[in-house]
Design brief:
The chain is an all-alpha fold. It has two domains: 89 residues, RNA polymerase sigma factor, region 2, helix turn helix motif (Rna Polymerase Sigma Factor, Chain: A), CATH 1.10.1740; 85 residues, Winged helix-like DNA-binding domain superfamily/Winged helix DNA-binding domain (Arc Repressor Mutant, subunit A, Orthogonal Bundle). 74% of the residues lie in helices and 0% in strands. It has eight helices and no strands.
Length: 180
């Protein structure tokens, strides 16, 4: 199995196959992330394409001190901002590719509700930090690098984001019990 660093070095040396392998490794995750940041699925696809074009163009500037995914998400965040025109597409537009259909549907519905609530109550930066931590399983240091923030900022805002999301979900539960 080839590592990201080996693929990056091969791509820097001109291997289209190596860069294609990197694209395949990150495409689905990045698209899922960009769908939550862009106004439409088409904008998310455009931002994804721009992200990979920029990554290829600036691959020589990648610093291996950071994980490749951190560098790539930083590019994606900037491209999403360029393509974003206001409204955000629901996460449910992209289905999971594993599991039985019923489980996938239930999991997708729960995740959509959670991330939709997060989108409503959190700032863009806090939402992005939460997504990178809990959807992409990035470390606090990697998130800090992707967002160009300190680790302290990241930790505090992840905690505040969780608190705000918990309060919002408790409000939703109270409303549903009142009508039920």
């Amino acid at each position: 199995m080839t590592t990201d660093l080996e693929l990056i070095e091969a791509a820097r040396d001109g291997s289209v196959d190596a860069f294609t392998e990197l694209v395949h490794a990150y495409r689905e995750r990045l698209l899922r992330f960009l769908v939550t940041r862009c106004a439409s699925f088409a904008d998310a696809e455009d931002a994804l394409q721009d992200t990979f074009i920029n990554a290829y163009r600036y691959l020589h500037s990648y610093d291996p001190q950071w994980r490749f995914s951190t560098w790539l998400y930083r590019i994606a965040i900037r491209n999403a901002a360029r393509h974003n025109s206001g409204n955000v597409t629901e996460l449910g537009d992209i289905a999971d590719s594993e599991g039985d259909p019923l489980s996938t549907c239930i999991k997708d519905s729960e995740r959509t509700n959670l991330w939709s609530a997060a989108r409503r109550v959190l700032s863009d930066e806090v939402y992005t930090a939460m997504w990178l931590r809990y959807a992409e399983d990035m470390s606090v240091n990697d998130i800090s690098g992707a967002l160009d923030r300190t680790s302290s900022w990241t930790k505090v805002n992840l905690m505040r984001g969780r608190q705000a999301l918990e309060a919002e979900m408790n409000r939703d539960d109270s409303r549903s019990k009142a009508y039920g």
